[in-house]
Amino acid sequence: MKKTLAIAALAFLPALSPAQAPAADPLAFLGWMKDLAGACWEGKDAQGRVTDRQCYEVQYGRFLRGTIEIGAIDNKPPGFRGDSLFHREPKTGRIAIVLWASNGSVSLSEAVVEGGAIRYLQPKVEGRPESRTSWTRQGADGFRVAREHREGEAWQETLVVNYRRLPK
Question: What pLDDT, on a 0 to 100 scale, did the predictor assign at position 24?
């Protein structure tokens, strides 16, 4: 019995070997987005109205988990809640996102880091302009999210939400 347990334990030793230690910063693929972890952020539209609240945390040292809550009007319960898990897609190196929400939806998405922007790619829909969402950092305590669509060779913003870090 002891010999069987010892052999079984040996099967797990390669998983613990130093040769397979995680990278120095397993969240580096997220760019500045990794710095959102450990905080909640409140979004406001151009008129100063609160749009949503997002919170981020690191999970298992290598994933970023985000939650979103979109409030309903007249102090009713939230109209929408969602969770997302951000990880690195090994084949493409892109940010892969798994999203699930209170409305029953589950979806997959992806993003790329382009300089100081994180671009969330939207699937192309026949007959509609190409669209994306771009996130940019606005100092240590803020970031900006812009929904954009392509007009010719240029991208035009259609909606902007500015986020500020909430006090703990």
Answer: 83
